[in-house]
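The following block was generated as part of the benchmark described in Methods. Ligand: acetoacetyl-coenzyme A.
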Amino acid sequence: MDLELNETQKLVQNAARDFATRVVGPQAAEIDATERFPRDILRGLAELGLTAVNVPPELGGAGAGVISFALAMQEVARACASTAVMMSVANMVGETIAKFGTEAQRRLYCPKLASGEYPMGSFALSEPDAGSDPGGMRTTARRDGESWVIDGAKQWITGGTYAGIFIVWARTLPPETSAKGISCFLVEGGTPGLKVGRREDKLGIRGSDTVPLEFDGCRVPADALFGQENGGFKIAMMALDGGRIGISSQALGIARAALAESIAYSKERRAFDVPIAQHQAIQFKLADMQTQIDAAHLLSMRAAWLKENHMAFSREASIAKLFASEAAVRVCNDAVQIHGGYGYTREFAAERHLRDARVTTIYEGTSEIQRMVIARTVLG
Ligand code: CAA
């Protein structure tokens, strides 16, 4: 693995860092406090090519690769985790359509996602009773003449209120076929029969829009089928492998913000006549935080590098996601501890980072699911 960034990767990293520092960071506390969907910021990210980093230029994307995507995610997440998760999902949706769509689907939807014409694209896999086990989904799609008719419910859909396009998974064969009877559809936002529910009231990433969906006789044309009929489950798995690189990068960005603020605070705050940074108890925490961040960075970069070089990366993406998300929770927890009582208040960002980090061990596959994926490969 080459650890040296090339010119494109440096360019993307710098552009993301600059935008995150100048525009995103100053709004992050307010986005969290008011649960504001950062539409203007997503538009700004789209203008920089950051909502379609690994989508080919002929489809409107930046064509800058997976490592660039991971680096950009880290920078944006360091400023605002709510914005970063929507950026990650928008990239995953665009990339999935670019990879598995028909020529017509790719040409129709990818440019709209990349340019920001669609404020979001959403990934509608999970259901109220099927999160970790999407093979157990109940939403159905039945063929009716020149249409498909979708009925059912989806849950935890990031960006659903604003999505111009949804990738929707539904059963096209009876439940006993499990993962082998699931197909995938591209459903445009506003399609009759698709109802977007009330936004969830969450612990963290409060600016990110998370909604349930209801499909009630939602009719889409025959050519809304995405990928092979009954071949949808594998598309979900492959998309999630890439998405997990996005979430490990998000976790890493949040952890970096927590460490940077802990360093600054520990140099300022005095106790027992010296800045607390001079106490070994604080120094050891900072050292452990940095060590975990470095390890998470290397694991995330390994997964991104493998994907970029068209090698198998599913296991490495799960390892990166598992480690980075759990490390982020530990790092952010230590950041609160270093800030003492102030860390437990909204006066400092430490508490927001901890709330934001917590979800990274849950979405795009819980830590337990990542361990399942890793264990299967370990056991052969
Ligand atoms: N790539 C390609 N194919 C894959 C694959 C992968 N990574 N993983 C599995 N498959 C294939 C298998 O080879 C198998 O194919 P065959 O039938 O041809 O043999 C098929 O898919 C079924 O695989 P499994 O039998 O392994 O399926 P399973 O039901 O045991 O599930 C699992 C495996 C990995 C646990 C999977 O269910 C999983 O990843 N669960 C977690 C789901 C998840 O991450 N949800 C996140 C929701 S989206 C989200 O959070 C987005 C957001 O908004 C932030």
